[in-house]
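> Could you send the TetR/AcrR family transcriptional regulator prediction when you get a chance?

Sure thing. Input:
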Amino acid sequence: MKTLTPAARRVLDVAGELFYANGIHAVGVDTIAAAAGVTKKTLYDRFGSKDALVAEYLTERDERWRAHVRAVVARSPRAGALRRPLLVFDALEEWMAKENSRGCGFVNAHAELPDSDHPGRRAIQAQKEWLLGYFRELVADLRNPARLAESLLILLEGATVVESLQVTPSAVATAKRLAKQLLEGAA
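Output:
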């Protein structure tokens, strides 16, 4: 994470909370500046534009997610090739319990940012590509790792959406069970 001034840190923290809770388009810079206790000029001086602030919010959220996933996986250093990818599902369960009540912040943002040139879209793309790459890394020693990683990503992403909508409250556990079957088949 890049170093921010205290005012920029407040702006980014407040913006992140408001964007996630209310949606990007529903939150204006006036609201963010007032909630952060800064002027709009300070917000623009630190971030340049609302679009840049959105991109920074998504980038920082991605960095927190990556660190969380890695930490959960690192807690089980002796986990074998069949168990390590399942730890990502454990990480998702923990994340959703504390940080993800409205579903995936990246999917939500993607729905609000139709312009493919928006800097936030690059952050969203980078997050999903990282997750796919991380799954590839975790399943590298199994059969057909590229296809297996894609399947795991689809299961994880689908479970995130379905569980956040409360369609199936145990969607992550179900996806993890299906992932385990895929992994066993690839051993």
